[in-house]
């Protein structure tokens, strides 16, 4: 037995037989104190402790390695001084201890100790003044007691038997944190591997980062398989590597995939998959997460299907042992969908698709300028393989003149005629430029590919246009991921790890997807089948079926595009008696996507035969200047790519302006429906207009609010236009600031974030920039938390020793605290740092409103605007039945309680809720779901994201 450093210290040891268990342990108890691994990097493990019970805590605890280890190990260090200081200066109840082991994992500490001591024990020492009898427990990541050993010492002797463990465990249970259970279930170790496969996609790195860190947080070991299936087929330590916390530091903002990807022929063959299975088993991997496109996930599904026969073959040929066979009989596999093509069924978006869309829109916006200057036509080829999603969404976002996609093929003659007709009409109306987007998979209805040259030839020969071809190529796949992809990749990574941990041999393999705004688990087998059936339907020329198999959002976008594209020159689709006068107004601060909503509303109206009116400069504009007039097609034709509000916006609500005058103006122009686009002021305006229906019949028209505010605080929706543009601006700003902080080393920036009383932007800003924390109005800033955060900052800078290129960011919502401004926080940090590091402030201010709106805001603006028009069409007649008396509100409330389908509410917020587009009555929202004074919904959907954002940067709460 190794002699303890100090003679009067009690000590405990683990025997070698416990090594496997110890490797999995992420929590341990010493004298009934609970320590948790809160963060792990390749060089450091952070353990934290909170006193579980104020009545029986030991007063002090000291954990040390023995002198031999201390002297010989250059990497092992325990911050004893820090620990002691805290123990003596803090109240137990709020005490949080941090022990820092400078090594890459607990398991490594253990192994090193064994190697150095040439002994079979690992020593923890505690001071004898602990009041509780000192024992050491190891718990697995799920909280099960998996091991306990002690060598002879003052309090116990011999290796305790299981019954002792059980006894101590139940004793421990009564003392430890409520809700933390100690059971005796068999522990199932998890070594989780992640790989990226197929074409790289922006956001893959964020996905890997999230998977690696979540696995570590959950107490698992994380591995990366380099070079996709190629690495799996080749195997060995070169391709299958354990990943630590710091190995994925800074990956959020990096494009491509840092663990490599490949298109691997061998994996398509059984022999390749057999090697892959052997390599996985040899590396001890028991769960595999594949981030890739439809091909990669098809491969994953084939692998899952073949697995039982593969392992059997390996066993029969003696390539694996019985023990390995028993352990790896089932393959635990999960897919996260990473591909720019967005061609996988069962998910609305694949990781990378929106980044690629952003690249495409940016390129088309640039080309617009030169096309306009020369009055030229441009034929632009975009990627997407056999899927037209990128071309379609880019078509909507840039208001392209024509698109060719595989899902809606026509005969060669039809598409040529249709394109020429539309393009020449656009030219007749005064448009100087022509943009045609061609999906690389575009085909005729005879499955003959349509090339950009074919298209250009038609424009030149039939219309005589000066035409150029641009193939965007791999530019579309490069660069950093947009905010949405970072968010999607991160949240899906967390979900994937949770899914594999919850999987049993009988659970179908999951694929992680997103529906509208909700991360969902779907069956991998079904998703693959559905995806394959799209390709089959296309090859059978059954295009209707192919379209029906794409998600519903796809066909909705396509129908909208077709309608908007034929605006103002095709014969309107509605009979004269059904045509309406529909007005649109911006209320509140500008937000990205407002102009797209107007463009889309107007063109959609025109295609139907309605007359779209714009009210300029909000309600005051209407009242003071009578600023309401029909929208003109050529005037709005390039509004999609413009930020701000082209028609002008104003914060004043109707009651602050002049209700009577507003009613008069609407009546004067015979307005049949009004669309408000804006944030909380627009929400209040909607309520005021509805309430005023009793007095003013002019407001007895359908009223729809499209939420648009960077704060994303409109009740009734999880998403407001402008929030995505804002997040992207903030993200770019944070990336730059973080880069500066990293280069300077030892620097933290306190970034002040907008958002009113909503912490949405700050929270998602933290998630996508990897900021150390975010302070939000919903939580405020307690001095205790600030102190804890500064302590963590000190520790992390100390451990970095200037080596890591880690810039630190604190994000502070402007309204999180009036007293603790960004400047004050920075000053406190500077004061506390004792010159070891420094803090600066960075205030992006109105830059956060963004310049050019993001494609998400443009396309969502389009979708919500079309939905708003449809709502007005469907509800004009309903208004006749409604009695405008005082009970109107309870009438609506009753209606919606009883039967949401037949709600007769005609003043609504159109928004995204969970996984669908919903129309929520203002009356109900305002009265029951809003904290009006705070200008906030009573509950927010993104609370859970705060925890994820904190966890993934290793932040703990005081
Ligand atoms: N049917 C299959 N059986 C086994 N492996 C497959 C199968 N289909 C694809 N794979 C594997 O997945 C890899 C990637 O597939 P693919 O090249 O189609 O890219 P992807 O994952 O669809 O991504 P992207 O389309 O975004 O480039 C292939 O190179 C192959 O190794
Ligand atoms: O980069 P590669 O191997 O040439 O593949 C290009 C293909 O990959 C993708 O970028 C992603 O699947 C497709 O859009 C494109 O057809
Ligand atoms: Mg693919």
UniProtKB/TrEMBL annotation:
Its quaternary structure? Homotetramer.
Q: What's its top-level EC category?
A: transferase
Q: Name one GO molecular function term.
A: metal ion binding
Q: Name the coenzymes or cofactors required.
A: Mg(2+)
Its BP terms in the Gene Ontology are: canonical glycolysis; fructose 1,6-bisphosphate metabolic process; fructose 6-phosphate metabolic process; intracellular chemical homeostasis
The species is: Saccharomycopsis crataegensis
Pathway per the UniProt entry: Carbohydrate degradation; glycolysis; D-glyceraldehyde 3-phosphate and glycerone phosphate from D-glucose: step 3/4
Q: What is this protein called?
A: ATP-dependent 6-phosphofructokinase
């Amino acid at each position: 037995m190794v002699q303890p450093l100090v003679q009067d210290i009690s000590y405990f040891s683990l025997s070698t037989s416990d090594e496997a268990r110890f490797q999995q342990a992420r929590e341990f108890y010493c004298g009934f104190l609970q320590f948790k691994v809160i963060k792990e990097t390749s060089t450091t493990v952070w353990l934290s402790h909170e006193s579980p019970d104020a009545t029986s805590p030991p007063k002090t605890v000291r954990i040390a390695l023995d002198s031999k280890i201390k002297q010989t190990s250059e990497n092992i260090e325990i911050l004893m001084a820090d620990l002691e200081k805290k123990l003596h200066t803090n109240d137990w109840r709020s005490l949080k201890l941090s022990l820092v082991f400078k090594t890459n994992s607990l398991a490594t500490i253990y192994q090193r100790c064994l190697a150095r001591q040439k002994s079979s024990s690992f020593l923890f020492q505690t001071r004898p003044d602990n009041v509780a009898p000192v024992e050491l427990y190891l718990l697995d990541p799920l909280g099960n007691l998996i091991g306990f050993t002690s060598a002879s010492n003052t309090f116990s002797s011999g290796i305790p038997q299981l019954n002792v463990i059980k006894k101590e465990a139940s004793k421990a249970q009564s003392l430890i944190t409520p809700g933390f259970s100690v059971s005796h279930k068999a522990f199932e170790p998890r070594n989780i591997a992640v790989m990226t496969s197929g074409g790289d996609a922006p956001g893959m790195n964020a996905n890997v980062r999230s998977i690696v860190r979540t696995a570590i947080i959950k107490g698992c070991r994380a591995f990366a398989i380099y070079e996709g299936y190629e690495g799996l087929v080749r195997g060995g330590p070169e391709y299958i590597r354990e990943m630590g916390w710091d190995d994925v530091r800074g990956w959020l903002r990096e494009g491509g995939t840092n663990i490599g990807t490949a298109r691997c022929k061998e994996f398509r063959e059984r022999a390749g998959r057999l090697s892959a299975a052997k390599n996985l088993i040899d590396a001890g991997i028991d769960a595999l997460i594949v981030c890739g496109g439809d091909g990669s996930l098809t491969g994953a599904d084939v692998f899952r299907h073949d697995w039982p026969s593969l392992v059997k073959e390996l066993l029969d040929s003696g390539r694996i042992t019985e023990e390995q066979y028993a352990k790896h009989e089932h393959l635990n596999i999960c897919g996260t969908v990473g591909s720019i093509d967005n061609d996988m069924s069962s998910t609305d978006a694949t990781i990378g698709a929106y980044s690629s869309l952003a690249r495409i829109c940016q390129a088309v916006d640039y080309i617009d300028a030169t096309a306009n200057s020369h009055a030229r036509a441009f034929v632009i080829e975009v990627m997407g393989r056999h899927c037209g999603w990128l071309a379609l969404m880019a078509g909507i976002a840039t208001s392209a003149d024509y698109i060719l996609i595989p899902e809606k093929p026509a005969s060669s003659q039809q598409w040529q005629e249709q394109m020429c007709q539309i393009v020449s009409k656009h030219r007749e109306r005064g448009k100087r430029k022509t943009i045609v987007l061609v999906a690389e998979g575009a085909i005729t209805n005879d499955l003959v590919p349509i090339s950009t040259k074919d298209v250009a030839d038609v424009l030149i020969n039939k219309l005589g246009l000066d035409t150029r071809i641009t193939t965007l190529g791999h530019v579309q796949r490069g660069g950093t991921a947009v905010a949405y992809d970072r968010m999607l990749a991160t949240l899906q990574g967390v979900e994937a790890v949770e899914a594999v941990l919850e999987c049993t041999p009988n659970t179908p393999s999951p694929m992680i997807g997103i529906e509208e705004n909700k991360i969902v688990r779907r069956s991998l087998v079904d998703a693959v089948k559905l995806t394959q059936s799209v390709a089959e339907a296309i090859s059978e020329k059954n295009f209707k079926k192919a379209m029906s198999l794409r998600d519903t959002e796809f066909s909705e976008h396509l129908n909208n595009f077709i309608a908007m594209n034929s605006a103002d020159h095709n014969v309107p689709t509605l009979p004269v008696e059904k045509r309406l006068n529909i007005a649109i107004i911006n209320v509140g601060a500008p937000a990205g996507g407002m102009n797209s909503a107007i463009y889309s509303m107007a063109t959609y109206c025109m295609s139907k035969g309605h007359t779209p009116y714009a009210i300029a400069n909000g309600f005051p504009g209407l009242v003071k200047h009578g600023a309401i007039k029909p929208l003109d097609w050529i005037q709005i034709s390039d509004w999609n790519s413009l930020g701000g509000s082209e028609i002008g916006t104003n914060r004043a609500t109707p009651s602050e302006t002049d209700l009577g005058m507003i009613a008069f103006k609407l009546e004067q122009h015979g307005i049949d429906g009004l669309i408000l686009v804006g944030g909380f002021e627009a929400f209040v305006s909607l309520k005021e207009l509805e309430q005023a229906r009793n007095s003013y019949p002019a407001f007895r028209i359908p009223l729809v609010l499209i939420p648009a505010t960077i704060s994303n605080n409109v009740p009734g929706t999880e998403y407001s236009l402008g929030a995505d543009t804002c997040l992207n601006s903030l993200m770019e700003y944070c990336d730059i600031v973080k880069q500066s902080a990293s280069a300077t080393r030892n620097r933290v920036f306190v970034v002040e974030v907008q958002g009113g009383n909503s912490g949405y932007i700050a929270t998602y800003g933290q998630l996508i920039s990897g900021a150390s924390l975010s302070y939000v109005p919903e939580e405020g800033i307690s001095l205790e938390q600030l102190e804890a955060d500064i302590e963590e900052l000190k520790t992390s800078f100390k451990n970095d020793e200037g080596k890591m290129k880690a810039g630190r960011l604190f994000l502070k919502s402007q309204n999180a605290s009036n007293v603790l401004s960004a400047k004050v926080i920075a000053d406190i940090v500077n004061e506390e740092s004792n010159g070891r590091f420094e803090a600066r402030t960075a205030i992006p201010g109105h830059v956060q409103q963004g310049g050019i709106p993001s494609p998400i805001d443009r396309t969502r603006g389009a979708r919500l605007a079309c939905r708003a028009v449809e709502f007005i069409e469907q509800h004009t007649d309903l208004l006749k039945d409604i009695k405008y008396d005082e009970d109107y509100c309870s009438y609506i409330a009753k209606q919606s309680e009883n039967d949401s389908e037949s709600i007769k509410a005609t003043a609504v917020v159109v928004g995204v809720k969970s996984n669908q587009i919903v129309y929520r009555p203002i009356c109900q929202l305002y009265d029951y779901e809003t904290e009006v004074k705070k200008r906030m919904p009573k509950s927010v959907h993104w609370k859970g994201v705060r925890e994820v954002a904190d966890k993934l940067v290793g932040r703990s709460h005081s």
